[in-house]
Amino acid sequence: MRRVVVTGLGLVTPLADGVEKTWERLLAGQSGAGKITGFDPSRLTTQYACEVPLGDGTDGTFNADAYMEPKEQRKVDTFILFGMAAAQQAIEDSGWQPTERADQERTGVMIGSGIGGLNSIADTAVMMAEKGPRRVSPFFVPGALINLISGQVSIRYGFRGPNHAPVTACSTGAHAIGDASRLIMFGDADVMIAGGAEAAICELGIAGFNACKALSTAHNDDPTKASRPWDRDRDGFVMGEGAGIVVLEEYEHAKARGAKIYAEVLGYGLSGDAHHITAPPPDHEGAERAMRAACRNAGIDPAQIDYVNAHGTSTMADTIELGAVERLVGPEAAAKLTMSSTKSATGHLLGAAGAIEAVFSILAIRDQVAPPTINLDNPDVETVVDLCANAKRERRIDIALSNSFGFGGTNASVIFGKIA
Amino acid sequence: MSDVADRVRKIVVEHLGVEEDKVTETASFIDDLGADSLDTVELVMAFEEEFGIEIPDDAAETIQTFGDAVKFISSAQ
């Protein structure tokens, strides 16, 4: 099988716009949470979230005009805008912008979303109820469809290879990166732009997850303390938004053009729980099977894993995931393992979560440092695993595994390795 | 320049992101102002909203230039 490496990164997160600014704030233990400002949340049980900081582009703020002309912005939902922005960053970072037709045909796009244009759908439905169907914009459908990030990226850059978009709730970003790497391994493409984007922080999105009893509700007065994986006082996830995109490339292709190589995609594993629409089973053996499959695919012993970026959403399922990881690596390796949940800082970006967390896992390998789990003040788990509580951990990280689990009982694990 | 023309021009500039002086009497939305077929559908909807009129689909198809739009709207009002 052909080897796949990562040659470009792009991030739009609640911590900042941009890879380095986000990473710097993540390592510093900052939180991206705050009272919702994008709309009036006063009718909602949960009135806080991790929103992307908007601004003029300075100090890590997101300036949409830097990525899309204002007249084009009007035609797309925000999740597409975030996806396009992160894709632009990743593509520019990789230096891969082919003008030859043959190269363009070997370059594909696989960017998904968990929910897609929810806010556009909600707004358009309300508008139609008031003014009638003739007022529905011709840009409503192409502005809300999940695969339209992949479509827009291919149109802008002339990428004529495989054009695809996975939808697996909160595992979407991980599935996109894993599936895209397989397309390169199997020879369908030499380069893939892959990842996920989400922008579901709207009244309907928060109300829906509130109804599922999935969101944190107790921190309207102190939102930065709300996302606290493995902590005694956790009470649900905090919704985030943004996008994570990577450029994946066949190893010899990357070497031949002298590309900067961040890491190798070593392994990928998938499984289904066959259990419940929103909850994992008590032992989450499906998660364990996904991780084992990824290790087998990577040709490594699970004990070789140095760092796990947990799904860790700040719910009771955090403990279950930790148990699955402990069983996977065994007691001896568990004592040497570092595992953190960056959702403590970014919130849960749903379909983009697996993608931004893949980027964090890759940066952990690059900089040999694990980002912290913030707000882990009173762990309610007893474990020998280092959960990286409240401070980053500088340590050797040659192999990092990133977990993502989604509603419907879908699990994905991706393993990245250091390139010697 | 009539009031209708000013209001139509404002909509065209806003929706198509073009310079005001490009929006001349004979300027074609598609050939001269960079619109695609979806843009023209949206433009017609914006005209309907702004002027409180209904533009049937067969009439919409005949509105291809700025001048066409001003003429149609002036007579429909």
From TrEMBL, chain B:
Q: Which GO terms describe its molecular function?
A: acyl binding; acyl carrier activity; phosphopantetheine binding
Pathway(s) annotated for this protein in UniProt: Lipid metabolism; fatty acid biosynthesis; Glycolipid biosynthesis; KDO(2)-lipid A biosynthesis
Q: Which InterPro entries match?
A: ACP, ACP-like_sf, PKS_PP-bd, PP-bd_ACP, Ppantetheine_attach_site
The principal localisation class reads cytoplasm
The protein's matches in SUPFAM superfamilies, at most eight in alphabetical order, are given as: ACP-like
O-(pantetheine 4'-phosphoryl)serine PTM sites in chain numbering: S37
Subcellular location(s): the record lists:
Cytoplasm
Q: Give UniProt keywords alphabetically.
A: Cytoplasm, Fatty acid biosynthesis, Fatty acid metabolism, Lipid biosynthesis, Lipid metabolism, Phosphopantetheine, Phosphoprotein
- What processes does the entry annotate via GO biological process terms? Kdo2-lipid A biosynthetic process; lipid A biosynthetic process
Occurrences of domain Carrier (ranges): 2-77
SMART domains from the entry? PKS_PP (SM00823)
Q: Name one GO cellular component term.
A: cytosol
PTM remark: 4'-phosphopantetheine is transferred from CoA to a specific serine of apo-ACP by AcpS. This modification is essential for activity because fatty acids are bound in thioester linkage to the sulfhydryl of the prosthetic group.
According to its UniProt entry, the function of this protein is described as: Carrier of the growing fatty acid chain in fatty acid biosynthesis.
State the PANTHER family in the record.
Answer: ACYL CARRIER PROTEIN, CARRIER DOMAIN-CONTAINING PROTEIN
Membership in a protein family: Belongs to the acyl carrier protein (ACP) family.
Return the protein name: Acyl carrier protein
What is this organism's lineage? Bacteria, Pseudomonadati, Pseudomonadota, Alphaproteobacteria, Rhodobacterales
Which gene holds the coding sequence for this protein?
Answer: acpP
